[in-house]
Amino acid sequence: MLKNILVLTLISSIYLFANSFKVGDEIGHFSLPNQFDEKKDVDSKTQTIIVSFEKDTGKDINTFLASKKADFLDKHHTVFIANISGMPSIITKLFAMPKMRDYKHSILLIYDDADDRFVNKEEKSTLYKLENGVIKSISYITKDDLEEVFK
User: Would you say the C-alpha torsion 33, 36, 41, 45 has a positive or negative sign?
Assistant: First the structure.
């Protein structure tokens, strides 16, 4: 019985992360809307992707980016993605979007909870480092790591 549970857990884990980006994967080209509903591209020119899945980690990244110039992300060939798929739509519409529209930096948004391209770890943001569209590393960061990411 225990063996069956372990096998089922392993198979479920493989299925769950089957479509997630891994080191060595090519990201290709995709677009996501930002907080102003403008489609923004992620492609082979992108060198860094930071993904937040939680309110607190998103707040930390937004606070960091708010202290930088408006073109900071572009100059660093970086995109910031917030996965807000778990947020109730009424909260998104009434509270989150108006707040996000106050930021001078672009926040790309994932609304679809079936979008499993990016992996996450509780209380961390996911950092993807890329070269020519190929993922070279995936790590998990906190607000204390953000300055180091851009050195």
Answer: negative
> pLDDT digit string (tens) for 117-138?
999 999 999 999 999 999 999 9
Strand ranges across the sheet with 134-141: 108-110, 78-83, 48-52, 125-131, 134-141
Q: Which two tokens stand for residue 44?
A: 């082979």
Per-residue DSSP letter, 94: I
DSSP secondary structure of 25-60: -B---EEEEBTTS-EEEE-TT--EEEEE-SHHHHHH
CB 127 within 8 A of CB 48: yes
Burial (CB < 10 A; 0-12, 13-18, 19+), residue 129, is: middle
